[in-house]
Amino acid sequence: MAEQSVPDIVIGRLPRYLQALERMRLEGITTTSSLELGQRLGISAAQIRKDLSHFGEFGKQGTGYSVEFLIEQLRAILNLNRMWDLALVGVGDLGSALARYQGFTNRGFRIVLAFDNDPQKIGKRIGHLVIEDSATIPERIRQTGVKIAMLTVPAAEAQKVTDCLVEAGIRAILNYAPIHLVVPPGIIVEHIDPILKLQHMTYYLD
Amino acid sequence: MAEQSVPDIVIGRLPRYLQALERMRLEGITTTSSLELGQRLGISAAQIRKDLSHFGEFGKQGTGYSVEFLIEQLRAILNLNRMWDLALVGVGDLGSALARYQGFTNRGFRIVLAFDNDPQKIGKRIGHLVIEDSATIPERIRQTGVKIAMLTVPAAEAQKVTDCLVEAGIRAILNYAPIHLVVPPGIIVEHIDPILKLQHMTYYLD
DNA sequence: CATTGTGAACGGGTTCACAGCA
DNA sequence: TGCTGTGAACCCGTTCACAATG
Fold first, then answer.
1. By CB count within 10 A, which of A7, A149, B97, B130 is most buried?
2. Burial letters B122-146, b for 16+ CB under 10 A, else e
3. First CA to last CA across chain B, in angstroms?
4. Cα-based distances in Å from B136 to B146, B147, B174, B194
5. What would the pLDDT profile of A42-96 be if each residue is shown by its tens digit?
6. How many other C-beta atoms are found inside a 10 Å radius of the C-beta of residue A79?
7. B115 touches strand D (CB under 7 A)
8. A195 vs B11: CB contact, 8 Å cut-off?
9. Cα dist. A151→A120, A167, B116 in Å?
10. Residue B105, CB, less than 7 Å from strand C?
11. Interacting residues of A42 by C-beta distance below 8 A, sequence separation 6+
12. Does pTM top 0.85 for this prediction?
């Protein structure tokens, strides 16, 4: 099965498969099936088999999948067999929490740059990082070659900072600002806004 | 057009419409069209019109939509014409950041309860809240009648705490733990995991 | 015999295109 | 003329069902 343009929605599920499989490995499970994996994730077995079939044949009929092998395959597909450097832009409460978060490292990511435009914060330490002036974003991003940014600035600044990041060579942005970002084709944006999810849920409550 | 079972995916877009409209209002825009709104959100005009048509006829042909009126309609549909109380479970770095976050109030939410099981933290203040013992979740949730919880505990505890919350009467959970939660039918779970989104993006990078 | 991989059938969400109307 | 609301057409992702196989 060729890899020609796998639907994005399929790609989006692979990290969840990977997460569940790594949990299984932790529990000492060495072999699993599409059924078992699906039950853990609330996804149908057929869906999982179909998704995986876009990339190859990873299972054995009658047996299922080797947890270890499937983890390796998914990590390769998702380009996770390396450490990805992140830039953190905006060190308010949320940015600080992300900077201190311990969970990035063993899932393939580490923050190597932190920016803020508040003179009070510039030069201060946050974890092992030194907060740098947002004005230096262009040169520092270029120097370090970081490709992914996490954006935790106020909504009013988000688009301007985004333009700056893109100009500096950033290729993917995880946007925490409550605003839709406009970017050139080829730049990837994912949006995280907890309040949108809360407002989605309240529709069903009364 | 009747309101019989609107697709969930449609409901999920309404908060985004609302957000963009509130931004427009801030900018002094009083009238808009499905085209303009769509361009701001990266959504097609037809999609917006079709989505809104599930709930009524809110526009005027040739003119478009009154920003103010559409905001009111969306707020009513999403049950946002009231303040929703939230319980925060787990006051680590992320939980603390959420507790301090100023953006909830003017979008219809406020945190009224905070729990942790760390004796060091119980009794401490976080913003205007006092951190309470997780052991008291059942009685406190019942007393206060809070219906929505934000879960920011370690993955290992998440399912157990979830069972406790559901038992106590919580009807919706915003889950920050990197694990799929199993809940009874009728309980709403939304999942936020930034690393899943990062891993989604790295597929397209190299 | 359990479970995969997959073509085919299905279903439902999105887009199209246009009548209707201010 | 400009834009809405909507049935119909289209498209695409999910599910079904089964041949293949260790």
1. A149
2. beeebeebebbebeebeebbeeeeb
3. 48
4. 14, 16, 20, 30
5. 999 999 999 999 999 999 999 999 999 999 999 999 999 999 999 999 999 999 9
6. 16
7. no
8. no
9. 19, 15, 28
10. no
11. B180, B182
12. yes
The count of other CB atoms within 10 Å of the CB of residue A145 is 8
Measured between beta carbons, the chain B residues lying within 8 angstroms of A21 are: none
Q: Which residues pair with A110 in a beta bridge?
A: A85
Evaluate whether A152 touches A176 at the Cβ level (below 8 Å).
yes
Residue reference for tokens 């890899």: A3
* Nearest-angstrom CA–CA distance, A19 and A132: 33
**pLDDT, tens only, A97-129:** 999 999 999 999 999 999 999 999 999 999 999
- Identify residue A19 by its one-letter amino acid code: Q
Cβ–Cβ contact B150 with A under 8 A: yes
Residues 63-92 of A with CB under 8 A from B: 77-80, 84, 86
Which strands, in side-by-side order, build the sheet including B188-191?
A: B125-126, B129-133, B109-116, B84-89, B148-151, B172-175, B188-191
Which of A87, A97, A89, A111 is closest to A157 using CA atoms?
A89
* In contact, A4 and A54? CB cutoff 8 Å: no
Residue B60: DSSP 8-state: B
